[in-house]
Amino acid sequence: MNKSSEFAVDEAALRVDLAAAFRLAVHFNWHESVGNHFSAAVSADGSKFLMNPKWRHFSTIKASDLLLLDANDDSVMSGPDAPDPSAWCIHGAIHRAQPNARVLLHCHPKYATALATLKDPTMLPIDQNTARFYGKVAVDLGFGGIADNAEEGARIARSLGNHSVMMMGNHGVTTTAGTVAEAFESLYFFERAAETQMLAYASGQPLNVMADEIAERTAEDWVAYNDSAFAHFEALKGMLDRTDPSYRD
């Protein structure tokens, strides 16, 4: 098999996984009207990437619907299927500047977004799930309205840095990883962790925050469980296959 055919097979599989992520976001009630975007790089430098079309509900996304875009080609914004400006601003800038951020899942799930509205939206290590993210979250407090210009995109990309999660103050959350399965697992656990923290805050009782060394060790311990992301994602795709496999089309 030559390199081009290998690449085509990889893109086809990536399309299916990314389409599944959209449908699963609906299952977990992380979607928001016809907004928010997931993307995945298909080129080695990250500049060519797949993303959902403008204003399409996550529940309808199919593998064949995903746009193939070039982060270095602004002319896509004048095409008939152009993404909306905020999607291009955030995803285009990060894929252009951060080639290791292969998959970007950006949305506004309920608890992560509630946490993002706090003056200090830091994820505190108060249980195993919150400690999973210790030292891995970039916190961006520079929100200046809906992101829709190159300068704001570049600023967001710089804010992400080499972190795997970005808590976007007054906005939402973005998770990144090398695969859709890993980025989805990160989003899944981040939302669960945010729920735990917001419920703990709501109790009005003092939080029992782990010591730094315990939190760091817990985060490191999670690495041994990384393969569970793939098992979880395959199980969730199986659920979709039993109920509505059209995401694969």
Fill in the keyword field for this structure.
249 residues; disordered N terminus; 8 helices; L-fuculose-1-phosphate Aldolase; globular; alpha+beta; seven-stranded mixed sheet
Q: Layout of SSEs?
A:
Elements lengths: L2 H25 L9 E5 L6 E4 L15 E4 L14 H13 L5 E5 L2 H7 L11 H4 L5 E4 L9 H11 L4 E4 L3 E6 L2 H24 L8 H11 L5 H16 L6
Helix pairs in contact: 2-5, 3-6, 6-8
Notes on the protein architecture:
This protein has 249 residues and is an alpha+beta fold. The chain has one domain (3-248): L-fuculose-1-phosphate Aldolase, CATH 3.40.225.10. It is 45% helix and 13% strand. It has helices at 3-27, 85-97, 110-116, 128-131, 150-160, 180-203, 212-222, 228-243; strands spanning 37-41, 48-51, 67-70, 103-107, 137-140, 165-168, 172-177. It has a seven-stranded mixed beta sheet with strand order 3-2-1-4-7-6-5, with helices on both faces.
